[in-house]
Write a structure and sequence with these properties.
Residues 7-251 form the ABC transporter domain. It is built from 14 helices and eleven strands. With 333 residues, the protein is an alpha/beta fold. It has a seven-stranded mixed beta sheet with strand order 6-7-8-3-9-10-11, with helices on both faces. Strands 2-1-4-5 form a four-stranded antiparallel beta sheet, covered by helices on one side. Strand 9 and strand 10 (228-234) form a beta hairpin.
Length: 333
């Protein structure tokens, strides 16, 4: 993908106040990320790594503590009128279609809701029918008067996607879009998202803990750990030749992975007490095995921040060991 990014973040930090005098939690701790027109980016990491908080910031639901979000070259403004206009162009697809659909609303009303909120003028019925058809519910009129409980999980997710499409957005933010679906349906929904990208030129940020999903849908992947992106690049590069030990550990537990799975020690640190040096060093299998010591970077791993990838889409990794063994420079600090 070339050209200017559609959406961009620069040095975004999001902190939440600690309770009872505890330190602030640094949920997002300096993130640069670009999404270009027609590009699908997968944001990958364990639960609690900050990826959903970052996604909420991109939707304007959370205002960054510091840093900036820009869309189509303009800074995101958090006034009510500006956000309303922005949300015509950027739409959310949630993980659980049952939770995001009102059980008392018909499919027609669920899809038409966005049009009514934004004061659509025109043939509402035709627009709703077109959105349902694009989402794979055909003939659309057959679904107008159905309720969510009358649909399968895959059909409910298609209704949610139709509700996003009805406003003709340029970017979808999909938070675990197939996590609640049966395996047999997941491929259909992923194929639908790819088809919508090809037909409509949509961009998408897909938030997931599943690297297998990233492989199947994304052009580029950004791996997040404890509030920061630690590795980014084209999906084929990152998932076939991972450079960061954390990415290697995530990949090692996939069913199709060769070799022994990497079992990380302990839990991710508290985001209110981020360790010095590389934030992954306390769980790092490369440091624990002595490989970092042999590469001469063990002390740096424990004491020196490896910096953050700059978000431009070029392959980058925030890891002293990777840079020492590959002979590259580090990301920006």
């Amino acid at each position: 993908m070339t050209g200017s990014p559609l959406l961009s973040t620069r040095d975004v930090h999001i902190t939440f106040p600690g309770r009872h005098g505890a330190p602030d939690a640094r949920a997002v701790d300096g993130v640069d990320l670009d999404i270009r027109p027609g590009e699908i980016v997968a944001l990958v990491g364990e639960s609690g790594c900050g990826k959903t908080t970052l996604a909420r910031a991109l939707l304007g639901l959370v205002e960054p503590t510091t840093g900036r979000v820009t869309f189509d070259g303009q800074p995101l403004r958090y006034s009510g009128r500006s956000l309303k206009a922005y949300r015509r162009r950027v739409q959310l697809v949630l993980q659980d279609p049952s939770g995001s659909l009102n059980p008392r609303h018909t499919v027609y009303d669920a899809v038409a809701e966005g049009l009514r909120i934004h004061g659509h003028r025109g043939d509402e019925r035709a627009v709703v029918a077109d959105a349902l058809s694009r989402a794979g519910l055909r003939p659309p009129e057959r679904f107008f008067l159905r309720y969510p409980h009358e649909l399968s999980g895959g059909q409910r997710q298609r209704v949610v996607i139709a509700g996003a499409l009805v406003l003709e957005p340029e970017l979808l933010v999909a938070d675990e879009p197939v996590a609640s679906l049966d395996a047999s349906v997941r491929g259909e929904i992923l194929a639908l998202l790819l088809r919508l990208r090809d037909e409509l030129g949509l961009s998408a940020l897909v938030v997931t803990h599943d690297l297998g999903l990233a492989w199947n849908i994304a052009d580029r992947v950004a791996v997040m750990y404890l509030g920061r992106i630690v590795e980014t690049g084209a999906v084929e590069q990152v998932l076939t030749a991972p450079r960061h030990p954390y990415t290697r550990a995530l990949l090692s537990v996939l069913p199709e992975a060769s070799g022994e799975p990497v079992v990380l020690t302990g839990e991710p640190p508290d985001p209110a007490r981020i360790p010095s040096g590389c934030r992954f060093h306390a769980r790092c299998q490369v440091l624990a095995s002595g490989e970092a010591e042999r590469a001469g970077v063990a002390q740096a791993c424990r004491t020196t921040d490896p910096g953050v990838p700059d978000g431009t889409g070029t392959p980058q990794v925030a890891c002293h060991w990777a840079h020492a063994t590959e002979g590259e420079g580090t990301p920006k600090g």
